[in-house]
Amino acid sequence: MRQRKIGFAILVSAGLMGLAACSSSPTGTAPERALDRAAGTNTSGAYPLQSDGMPGNPRGTEASRALDRAAGTNTSGAYPSQSDGTRVNPPGTAATRAYDRATNSNTSGAYPQNGPRQ
Predict the structure, then answer these.
(1) DSSP letter (8 states) at residue 87
(2) Per the record, where are the segments of Polar residues compositional bias (predicted)?
(3) Nearest 5°: phi and psi at 25?
């Protein structure tokens, strides 16, 4: 009777180990995958299409992209057309350009006609 219980326990253990070895669960832990699904990231490695630079997830974080959209900058790297020195976003910040216009200076570098950068 005792041998039968031991044999059954061995059989169950072997079956469970076989299932574990053949597991097709994605990489990362469940909390990491949940974070990836919510944030659109690939921290766990289970969502490679959500990696930075992919069509579904451009460079930078959502927060840095939101900053870029609001401020017209390219902190995230997702908006190269908004980089300093382009037609859309001349050198300096909006504040330094406003200062330059008000004081007829060239602190930002956007108004070379106002004289050398100070």
Answers:
(1) S
(2) 72-86, 102-118
(3) -70, 145
